Amino acid sequence: MSIQRLEIKLERPNAIFESWLEKWLEEAERKDSRSKYKLREALEALKMYPLPLASGRECAILRGFGSTLCNLIDEEMRQQREKAQTINLNSSLYEQDIKEVVETVKKSKTKTAPAKEKTTKLTKKQQKALEEEEARVKQVTMSGGSFRIILIVDTQETSGKNKKTLDQTRGYLESLHVEYEVRRLTVGDFLWIARDTEGNELVLPYIVERKRMDDLASSIRDGRFREQKHRLKQCGIQHIIYLVEDYGDNEHVGLPLENLKQALSNTLIHNQFSIKRTENHRRSMMYLQGMSQTLIRVYKDKVLLSCDKEDLQPHTPTQRMIGLLKFKSLYEDSARNALLTVREVFVQQLLQLHSLSLERAMAIVELYPTPRCLMDAYDTCITSDEARNLLANIRYGQLERPMGERISQIIYDFYRSDFN
Q1: Sorting pLDDT into bands at 50, 70 and 90, what band is 268?
Q2: Count of CB atoms within 10 A of residue 312's CB?
Q3: Apex CA 231: angle with CA 182 and CA 173, to 5°?
Q4: Catalytic positions, written as ranges
Q5: Measured between alpha carbons, how far is 170 from 164 in angstroms, rounded to an integer?
Q6: Which CATH superfamily is domain 342-419 in?
Q7: Where is the ERCC4 domain positioned along the sequence (predicted)?
Q8: Over the stretch 65-112, which tens digit does the pLDDT of each residue have?
Q9: DSSP structure class, residue 191
Q10: Stretch(es) of the chain classified as CATH 1.10.150.670
């Protein structure tokens, strides 16, 4: 007697999840919500997947399933379990589906799809989260002539205690016929976006940090100058411009004028930022007007594509297709209150120390990624002199200069006095 192999193939291995997505998709289409595209993509991927999935978390392997949608499925599962009083809660979805199929084979009846269960409607918050997630991953393409270029002005430039500055900035830009908007920026004071008719926004590769000479002196004294340069370097925008305004005759700004000039020279040479000096606030706004006109002329016929910061490439004015960051991505990545790694916090700590440049700080964290690593290295030193000079021979920058005993001792005194 020959034995025939019975092959059982699940027609809809994730029918319950499909029914939930269909319900949410129907609701999104009725409201004409942007989340319908993400839900449709996820539903198609789920229908094509041949194996049962036991949770929303497992759905993350499929196209279209972001963290928000996975969490929604898990929440729906929790609610359905609470309603099903008589069902064995310890049975997996896989075991339930197999049992249903085997019973169907025995009875030789056409398998019917499980009835749709009542699902919880998406809340406004959940709907918004889905839309935001879709917007983050959506590929944006802007063809030449399909977008406007707009100057974005940070709210700090047009608000605060000094209403005169508010009126001047707005007044100058309006009198110069510059198209601009005021928003909260998490890095820089001015930048330019390209916006298409659908409201998509890409950031052009130019960002401006404006400093009046007295503000420059103040930021150097309290350490903000180094931190701001570090954050500008990390934001991913190719061209960084320091727009520096004179403050009267620059005689009473808080630091000697030569010191300020040296700081700007270092920023130009070592950080490779562009430096633009202006006589007053109006001249600064005229410079921004000129930049706006130039950028409109250069980019108006380009094809602009959205891309992640890791995929950004330097480009030349002759290129036809250009990859740019989404404005929302830049805003979120550069937020001052964003979570930092221990390594990044360590760098920011080091930058607060006198005479410690970003290049020196980065060289130190390459060898000692965290303060704890540095403390452990100090503990292995036999004498205090050895520990004080531990960092003296670390080389930094393109010229690979040694850190020096003075810097090494400053760092040693700072961390040992704080941690002991």
Answers
A1: very high
A2: 16
A3: 25
A4: 154, 157, 189
A5: 10
A6: Crossover junction endonuclease EME1, DNA-binding domain (1.10.150.670)
A7: 150-248
A8: 887 888 888 888 888 887 765 444 444 555 565 556 556 545 544 444
A9: E
A10: 342-419
Residues in the chain, total: 420
Question: What is the predicted pLDDT for the residue at 134?
Answer: 63
Taking the C-alpha atoms of residue 228 and residue 352, their distance in angstroms, rounded to an integer, is 12
CB atoms within 10 A of CB 124: 8
75, 84, 37, 32: which is closest to 56 by C-alpha?
A: 75
pLDDT at 53: 83
Kindly give, in sequence order, each residue whose CB lies less than 8 Å from that of residue 41, ignoring residues fewer than 6 positions away. 63, 64
Q: Taking all residues of the chain, what is their mean pLDDT, rounded to a whole number?
A: 81
- Look up residue 52 and give its two tokens: 């049962």
Separation CA 340–CA 227 (nearest Å):
14
For 9-43, b where at least 16 C-beta lie within 10 A, e where not — what string?
ebebbbbbbbbbbebbbebbeeeebbbbbbbebbb
How far from the centroid of its chain's Cα atoms is residue 56's Cα?
25
Looking at residue 95, its pLDDT comes to 54
15-137 is a CATH 1.10.150.110 domain: yes
Q: What's the farthest any 2 CA atoms get from each other in the chain?
A: 106
H-type helices in 108-212, by residue range?
A: 124-137, 155-158, 163-175
CATH number of 141-333: 3.40.50.10130
Which residues lie below 8 Å from residue 152, measured CB to CB, with a gap of 6+?
180, 181, 182, 183, 185, 190, 191, 192, 193, 327
Asked whether the beta carbons of 262 and 220 are under 8 A apart, the reply is: no
Distance CA 290, CA 36 (A): 42
Contact predicate 131/32, CB 8 Å: no
For strand 239-245 and strand 274-278, is the pairing parallel, antiparallel, or unpaired? Answer: parallel
